[in-house]
């Protein structure tokens, strides 16, 4: 599946497109199919997100959204070396899937 | 005869000169070097501004084009012309943005024809950003070091 | 230390307001991200993996206690209670909000600090020998020249949109502790027949095409220093490549033209510049230099400078028979550097606890260090390019008390220049450019060597890790270098040997095929095994490598 991610313009926080807006939690990300370009252009122009882009992801057996590339998995959760700073609730399934 | 290119006086948004602007187009640096009567020339980023030095006396307008604001070669071109004694109009054209204005002014530009018109208030603020300056440049302002050590 | 006058302060204040206005225009949509990016970068603000990252300049790595406390406060107030010291003697905060950035800059300006030109295609913060003004072997204190260049390079009207970033380092000793020849311009301040001048090296750098800077001028008189630098920059601004971001650094220009031709062009421009008159009055250099005069007690009492502390001397420090932890002696032996005054040393504060994150310090640790600087080092401290801190002027008699305070704060590791003193870039844990994580490797290697007690046995060994080809972790200059790459979506690590950033500068060579994380850690152990088995008396790892070459190491790794 194809999902959208970017950073919040004001706070810089990593965000994920949930179909209506931008969520802090990767598990809220939805498949955008062929609409990626249109949503990205519209949302960036409205400054609801900064430098957004589309990535590949999959849904794992437990229903969690898992970005394909390690870089986006690290973005989803936080630095692997500072697990105390992880995005809250995003790490409910632990860190094994990130690296 | 080379074809006229460049901006017209109508496109100039900011001008810090009292003389009448040149009312015809510019020629390329190559054309300027080949023909003896051109009074207005346009410098592109890759052009060597020093090729114009033999002709400074007859030039009334030099346009320096910034097709991309991130390409800073035009700043050197401007200073080189001023260092060589050029006193005619030096016009920055193309992607001239608010936050480049003060540095361009310091490098000797005295007119500005941005390809998109700039907000007047933002521009006024930008031109006034630096009350003091650290470096000697084409604007010949006394530097901070000069002020520290003036007798 | 240098102190701002009304002009310096006004410049920094003007910059804060300029940036506040730029941020406002971005948030209002008057600036696109493409337009805003170079502006925010020139104020040190990146958009990184998790948030905005702010890099604050620490000019030539020098700061006082109050400034360090302000850095601690910023970490707490606007970030998550810690900061990361970098290989260019700056500090980075990882969790910054754009809407706070101007306020942070305003807080910094209150303590004469800023984030000016800590990124972007402009002249970056000037770095210098971290032992400047203190080292026993110093010929000339480089900091006044670095400060002169800081002022010259700040908001330079002609050199703000260079082909690429531009880094300058200044040293004043034969020994190079600032990776001077791996900078775009490296300057060594020298004395010739009693006259002070500057040697200029140009076109060094790391990144994907590492190059050692050639000497382009052996002696630039002090009253022409800025003029010469301006000529170097103008030739680069006009002729540096702009068609390919990866070939845009000055090293490529110098390489493609050849050092002789680049030098010829600079000399021509220099002759012209001399006639234009861009040099600040020489009294300005004298004014700046006066700020760096050593406090009275530190002025050398006689002809003799300090020498390295010996175990015998360390035993006799302080009150005879005074009880102290055994860790002190190792620390005093390894983490001190000879001072120009024989009763003082420079004391290195390791930010490399075994298993820790290289270069990270908490707000609390920063405050401890600030307090110790005030108490033991004439209110002065330094950031080292090795991502450690140091107190430049510590009385030898104070070392036991200093060490106890450091040890209590987790800052007493006796590991300067050992295999635990790893330089590592933030890597894929923080950086959007990275291909692999650097920090976990550093943690595991330092932990392993500390646990086995091999650190001390191996001695001086500079291990440097970069998480991508941009080489922020200086892997090309490591006695052992590690480069993280992406191999079909998996982290993979290339090992290299034989680099040095010091006066014996050299570029490391790749050993062969890469390894996974466990594999590269085992590989590091194997190469140190080869070293221990073959080293001659007094040889460092690097010396042994240079003597025996790559083959024995390759044999051990791949044979």
TrEMBL record, chain A:
Q: Which InterPro entries match?
A: DUF2849 (IPR021270)
Q: Pfam families in the record, alphabetically?
A: DUF2849
Which protein, by its recorded name, is this? DUF2849 domain-containing protein
Question: Lineage from the top down?
Answer: Bacteria, Pseudomonadati, Pseudomonadota, Alphaproteobacteria, Sphingomonadales
TrEMBL record, chain B:
Q: Name one Pfam family in it.
A: DUF934
InterPro entries listed in its UniProt record: UCP030820
Q: What is this protein called?
A: DUF934 domain-containing protein
Native species: Erythrobacter ramosus
UniProtKB/TrEMBL annotation, chain C:
Record keywords, A-Z = 4Fe-4S, Heme, Iron, Iron-sulfur, Metal-binding, Oxidoreductase
User: Keyword Heme, does the record have it?
Assistant: yes
- Pfam families named among the record's database cross-references: NIR_SIR, NIR_SIR_ferr
SUPFAM superfamilies the record matches: Nitrite and sulphite reductase 4Fe-4S domain-like, Nitrite/Sulfite reductase N-terminal domain-like
The annotated region (Disordered) lies at: 297-318
Nitrite/sulphite reductase 4Fe-4S domain ranges (all copies): 119-272, 416-557
According to its UniProt record, the EC number is 1.8.1.2
All residue ranges annotated as the Nitrite/Sulfite reductase ferredoxin-like domain in the record: 52-110, 357-409
Molecular function via GO: 4 iron, 4 sulfur cluster binding; heme binding; metal ion binding; sulfite reductase (NADPH) activity
Know the name of this protein? Nitrite/sulfite reductase
